[in-house]
Write a structure and sequence with these properties.
Number of strands of chain B: 5
CATH superfamily of the largest domain in chain B: Beta-grasp domain
CATH topology of the largest domain in chain A: Uridine Diphospho-n-acetylenolpyruvylglucosamine Reductase, domain 3
Radius of gyration of chain A: 19 Å
CATH architecture of the largest domain in chain A: 2-Layer Sandwich
Radius of gyration of chain B: 16 Å
CATH class of the largest domain in chain B: Alpha Beta
Strand order of the largest sheet of chain B: 2-1-5-3-4
Distance between the termini of chain B: 55 Å
Number of helices of chain A: 11
Oligomer: heterodimer
Distance between the termini of chain A: 49 Å
Bound molecules: flavin-adenine dinucleotide, FE2/S2 (inorganic) cluster
Strand order of the largest sheet of chain A: 4-5-8-6-7
CATH architecture of the largest domain in chain B: Roll
Helix content of chain B: 25-40%
Number of domains of chain B: 2
Structural class of chain A: alpha+beta
Structural class of chain B: alpha+beta
Shape of chain B: globular
Strand content of chain B: 15-25%
Largest sheet of chain A: 5 strands, antiparallel
Helix content of chain A: 25-40%
CATH class of the largest domain in chain A: Alpha Beta
Chain lengths: ~260, ~160
């Protein structure tokens, strides 16, 4: 294996080194090192930064900023990030969670990226060395991105305003059949005033269920109220096929699981 | 390929080696340092046979680059027995027949050790969760779960 690792104390210097051909940023390495172990020779140089800012979590005034090197385990045990603990715990087994970073999860191709699904529902902002981007725009362009992600910011959801569900065959851990995250706001009469629903495994990367979001507006969260949203759930999806499930199966079961999440 | 120095403590003793940049901790431990207790099953992060404890956290040595461990304290299963006396987890694995071919055992024991270090009296569900990244093709898992619960009971009896 011909891989050379370069470590930089600042993100800026690491970002400059990443301009060289054949280089790739090393987060926790659960995907990058695995690819190297499997014989991926497209990468010859790994770049990482030990900048302490990358490992910081700051929660204040209802907003959170999580450094890109923060691991799923650190998020799951953080006292102020309780709303996201379930999504962080959904990633891999304990050893993976001790290594897998939030930065890396933004780049993880389906069936991975469960935490990025949560971040998409939360309408997070992704800070990179080239500036900030709303997560939706970031995900759309991520294949061409050469800039290091330094942190992710979002408004903490209100208690019970955030819902997350991951469906897997192997319990308690296992690769996703699909994952769903939703941020729902409700008016005083109980009807949905705004909804952001994000789906994992229903495309090559996390995507919004925009038709379902529209269909939920003004509706109550009961069987009748959610019927139109469930009927529209697969609109615009292009689910992946892998050893866990076929695209057909994923599309068939999405409305069932979305229904469970909305009625929970 | 340029060699890089790596230096860490392994089971309490200082180790220093030169490895090729990009060498995994698993390969450094097995091929350079001679600790073959972590096993290379999949090299993909899926089997857990290569599990080690780095600075108190369960990690997969096949996905960890050796040079990122400079200054770390690493524990492997080969460091658990003291003066020929098996660690309570090792003893329990033998007593409950939790090891058959034995390939998964060092990784299982590492995962179990981290659990018991933080949660001396785990529930069955906590044991299952703690072992969820480790695959065993022989035992059907039940004896392994029993071994961890047995070791936990033995620990708390000793502490009492
Ligand atoms: C056994 C196993 C089980 C898994 N299970 C799950 C699961 O259940 N759910 C799930 O979502 N994922 C899962 N994964 C995938 C993976 O572990 C996670 O997606 C993880 O969050 C990736 O983060 P990382 O830090 O390890 O990424 P790395 O491997 O370090 O990097 C992945 C990609 O992101 C880029 N990158 C990383 N950080 C940055 C940054 N700060 N700036 C710019 N680019 C960056 C890298 O260059 C690389 O292209 C699993 C992986 C394994 C091996
Ligand atoms: S060899 Fe590391 S997880 Fe299988
Ligand atoms: S004892 Fe053979 S794999 Fe577990």
């Amino acid at each position: 294996m011909a891989l050379a690792l370069q470590t930089f104390p600042t993100v800026k210097d690491a970002n400059a080194a990443l301009k060289a051909a054949g280089t790739r940023y090393l987060g926790g390495g659960t995907l990058v090192v695995r690819a190297a172990n499997e014989g991926d020779v497209s990468v010859s140089g790994l770049i990482r930064s030990t900048d302490p800012a990358l490992s910081a979590i700051a929660v204040a005034g209802g907003k959170a900023r999580i450094g890109a090197s923060v691991t799923m385990a650190a998020i799951a045990r953080h006292p102020d990030l309780g709303a996201l603990a379930k999504a962080a715990r959904a990633v891999g087994g304990p050893a993976i969670r001790n290594t897998a970073t939030i930065g890396g999860n933004l780049f993880a191709p389906a069936p991975y990226g469960d935490f990025a699904v949560a971040l998409l529902a939360l309408d997070a902002t992704v800070d990179t060395e080239d500036g900030e981007l709303p997560i939706e725009a970031f995900l759309a362009k991520r294949d061409d991105s050469r800039a290091i992600v330094s942190s992710v910011r979002f408004t903490l959801p209100k208690a019970d305003g955030f819902r997350f569900l991951k469906v897997s065959r192997v319990k308690p851990k296992g690769v996703s059949v699909l994952s769903i995250a939703a941020v729902l706001e409700r008016a005083a009469d109980g009807t949905v005033s705004s909804a952001r629903i994000a789906l994992g495994c229903m495309a090559d990367r996390p995507m919004r269920a925009k038709a379902a979001e529209r269909a939920l507006k003004g509706k109550k969260l009961d069987q009748n109220g959610i019927a139109a949203a469930l009927a529209a759930a697969t609109e615009g999806t292009a689910p992946i096929t892998d050893p866990i499930a076929s695209a057909w199966y994923r599309a068939e079961v999405l409305p069932v699981h979305l229904g469970r999440l909305l009625l929970a | 390929m340029a060699k890089v120095p790596v230096q860490f403590t392994l089971n309490g003793s200082e180790k220093a080696e030169f490895v090729e940049s990009g060498t995994t901790l698993l390969n450094a431990l097995r091929d350079k340092i001679g600790d073959t207790s972590p096993k290379g099953g999949c090299h993909q992060g899926t089997c857990g046979a290569c599990s080690v404890i780095i600075d108190g956290e369960l990690r997969l040595s096949c996905l960890t680059l050796a040079e990122t461990c400079n200054g770390a304290a690493i524990t492997t299963t080969s460091g658990l027995a003291e003066g020929g006396v098996l660690h309570p987890l090792q003893r329990a694995f033998l007593d409950t027949f939790a090891t058959q071919c034995g390939f998964c055992t060092p990784g299982m024991i590492m995962a179990a050790k981290v659990l018991l270090d933080h949660t001396p009296n785990p529930s069955r569900d906590e044991v299952v969760e703690a072992l969820s990244g480790n695959i065993c093709r022989c035992t059907g898992y039940e004896p392994i779960i029993q071994a961890v619960l047995t070791a936990a009971r033995a620990n708390s009896q000793n502490a009492a």
